[in-house]
Structure formats: structure tokens, C-alpha cells
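User: Teach me something about this protein's shape.
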Amino acid sequence: MKNINVVVLGDNEFAKELGKKGTSSDFTIYNYKGSDMKGGELTASFLAPTSYPEKIQSLTHCLAMADAAILVVKKLDRELGEFILSLDLLGIRKGLIIFDDYVEKETFVNLVKNTVIESFVIVDKSPAEIYPRIANMEPSKNEVQHVIIDAAFDVKSVGTVALGVARGNVNVHDEFNVYPGNKKITVRSIQVHDKDVNSAENGERVGLAIKGASVEEVDRGHILAKEGAKSGKEITGKFTKNKYYQDKLEVNSKIFIAAGLQYRQVDITALSDDKITLKSEKEIAYLPGQECLLLRPEAKSRIVGRIKLE
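Assistant: First, the predicted structure itself:
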């Protein structure tokens, strides 16, 4: 059965109504398995950026795992602007809009004109209306079969357990390379919604008992992939600047990259109108074609733009 991963923006409290609380750190995951309210079944994970707006990486981590979004509009403010800009730069086109309080809808419509938000559907603030809408959405696909790790820990008598979202099928006894690093791991067992399974499908949240790597070697942001993933201290890609970002960008200046669940400070080593090269002290794991936000968390406009990695 497919699982859809949905980021809930603008109302962390509402996310609690959509599923059972799972892992929690600077973001919280609420898991739902039950009826889609139309006679079918639904499994979904709702992601809430619980440390946002203080930590913008709380938002970028949720967006990195999301197939779709629920945007709760309470007022037209800076946070809503960051939500709209982030969703648009990352191309998240599947989503729902909830108008929670009185909002000038005409102003909002003009605000999201020519963005991905135009494809979102307006719904009432009710799980009974949201579940069937979510059930009709498909999880994102990627040519590279992989799992992005969001947490890892030791379990007595089991060993290293890594949690993440499967992109492509994952089977017991599969072997994966760990990026970054040079480790190779074997999947010993798989759990989905606390049940042992032999195989997990695309989009499902998985708990993988693995052999061949310690907790430190499969930390948050690491990628498990058979082939196709990359890692390095220097990365290059197509650059799209946020049109509202006014500060000057220069070679040798420092910014941050949100690459999947990795949040790294990087130096700009080369920059043109449509291409940028970044260098990090630590290796960054990524997928070719992956789109990542570039940030300056201390700036008035925190989102610099987007890089599409080569």
C-alpha cells in the first residue's frame, strides 16, 4: 500500500489531529493508517516543522520529505511568504489550502499567482475532508532507488536501526551504499507502521534494521542507495535566485544549503547568472537533479534561492 508524506504548514497544532505522534525533534511526524473516508484505506505521514520559524531548517527538513503540502492560511505575513516561496522553488505542486481565519482571499490569490500554489485545492479544516483528497495523491518518484535517513538509534539485540522514507521498493537482504562515506550495509529487517514486512513500497516510512554501519555512520541526512547517488565537498548546479532577495551574492561569501535533511554552511566558489559552485567542510550526499534551497538565516529575506544539482 502506498504512503503519502504531507507537510503541514501554518498550524502545527492541526497536524496533531491528523495522525498519531511518531518521531519528534525539530520537526514532528504524525502517522495515520485507517479509512480514507470513502470506503478505502489510507496510510499517510504528516510532517510539522515544530521549531519553525526560529529554525528555518525545521521547515526545509519537512519539505525534503514531502510529496504534498497542506497550507493553512491564517494571515498574510512573512511566514506565509516563506511557505509560498519554498513550495514554489521546490516545485511541490500537490497540495491543499485551508483558510483558517478571515483572510482577504483576493489578496492571497494575487500573492500566489504564477506559483505552484495555483494548483492547490481549497478544503475545509477537517480530517474527514482531507483524508480522501490525500488518498488520491501519489508519492513522489525518483529514478534513483534510495532512502533518506531522518533518525537512527541502537536497539538492544537488533543493532542499528535507521528511520526514513523509501523512494522505490526496499526489500529484506537488499544491499545499499551509504552516502557520504564508503560503507555498504545490508537490510536485515523492515518495519512499516510497527509491523514486520519483507518489502516496503515507494513513499512508505520505514524502520530498517541494518548490518554494516553504526548509528553515527547513518545519521540524519545520509542517503542509502544502490547506485546513482553522489557525495562530495564541492557541488555545482543551476542557480535560481529568489526575486525578492536583495542582498548581494559574491564569490567567497558564505551561505547555507538545505540538501535533503542536511543543513550545511558552504562557501560560494564560483557564481554566474545561472550557475553556482559551493564548497563545504563536510561531504554532502545528494542525487543528480535534486533541487535544494539556499539560505541566509540571519538575513531579512532568509531564502536566497535554489540550486539544481548536477
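Now, about its shape. The chain has three domains: 4-135, 146-225, 230-309. The first strand starts at residue 4 and ends at 9. If you'd like, I can walk through any region in more detail.
User: That's plenty for now, thanks!
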